[in-house]
Amino acid sequence: MPPSTAATGSSRLNSMRNYFVPARVVNLCFVIVLVSSTLLTWREVVVLEDAYVASQRNTLDKVSSALDRQMEIGVNALLFFRNAMRAAVETPLTSEVLRNVQGEFAQQREQPFWRISVDQRRTLPITGVSDDFVARHPLLSRDDPQMHNEMTAALEVGYIMRLATALPAMPKHAWYVSRAGFFLSSQPSAVSAESVTRYESLLAEPSFTGQSHHANRFRGVRWFTSAHHTDPQASIVTVSVPLDYAQHWYGVLAIDYAFSSVKTLLEEALRDEEQGEYQLYNNQLEQVVTSLPAGVQPRAFTPAQRQALMQAITQSNSGSLRLGPSYVVWQKLDRFDGLLLRIHTLREGLQGDFGTISIALALLWLLFTTMLLSSWIVIRRMVNNMYAMQHSLQWQAWHDPLTRLLNRGALFERAKALAELCQQQHRPFSVIQLDLDHFKNVNDHYGHQAGDLVLTQAARLIGGCIEGEDLAGRVGGEEFCIVLPGSTLLQAQRIAERIRERIGRKEILVHNNQTVRISASLGVSSAEPSESYVFEYLQMVADRRLYLAKWAGRNRVCAVDPIQDVPNT
User: Is residue 150 among the annotated active site residues?
Assistant: First the structure.
């Protein structure tokens, strides 16, 4: 096997051993049990989810029916107004009041704007524009022979509107626009030049133009939405119906619902309902109003979601659809030309029966998980304590308790493995042997405690000069060995010089006011010249060169052997 392959295999094996530690095994077992219990619980949640969606359909049916009933009040009022006006046109009354109204109209009809007020306590005032204005507008017609019927019908509906809009359940704004050039409103304003503008704006509204014979062939009730460009709350929803008699189109009856009032109707219908958002749309799938409080942005659909929803709505008058994290349930309304949507999530439904069952299920799962977690904590703590104890014993077996460097046995074992690895990888390998000079004098003059302090400081300085995979250990009383895988002889010599200089510069406080300076002699060997990676041999060579450094005067580094023989002192 090539050296690189062997090294890779050994590295992978060590990585696997480091990964599958007892703590990780305990965690894996805990995760497996937790996932299994969670999957079983989730299966029950899915069953509850289906039941929840079905209940939301029933809830929407109830809400849409309540909203239809409230909208029906306005529709029925319009139909009642129309029937009353048709009856007035069919059997007009002849009275002094009507003759006075016709007389005032004859006097004011040429004015740009005018108003006829009969009795404001009984009927609404009639506001109109000139003959010239009527003649210029394509949808208007002032037929004098029918003006008697026009005024009769207007007075009749004005009387009924005043009475009807005073009822609490009735919408507060109803109006009638005649093609003969006048209108009346349940909320009349002062007559002015703005009356012409008001009348002209009513003529331009879809609620009027959409009731022509061409636009509304069936002459039924229609709903329209008019959006305000700057103030959404000022936008309105209008329900209107044409007034026809004897194939003649007299005008349009309408009731305006401000968005705020429509919102109130929706909130009234939802007073006792669950959480969620309700949105009212017209038949073009344009949002009319939502049940959210003012200032809260309603949930919007992406183009893809909108397309999917429109496709589903065209196929059925009611149904449900999952769009992302939300569910959409819809129901087309009977009394409104549009549909009601409910947008909700499962989380929002937790306040109902579904929530009660889900909470009970979640509590059972939580109880089981808590017990499992408690067991995991106890077992994990026991494993960690055993692992920590093992690690502590292992550390004590491998390290010198005083200097906290590797002891002789651990250093030699690791150094041999590194030497073999460097040989396989064709990397340099060097060894430094270090001895503190005159260390015995420190013990003799200052005591063994001071000597221990000197050894500790020397070990710290040695550790600060090595890095990476380098090793350092105490191999004797005041002897140290440094292993440098990947370092050449020259590099190792430089490191040795750095260690010697730092030890020599260090002033060590041994007592309150006493300091000592020490020096070190170092021997360096490398596998470069001899191509020998046997650690014992390299350590022996470095030790021999250490004694050469001592013989040469101490406080120096020796990295080569002398030519002459060296004394054994």
Answer: no
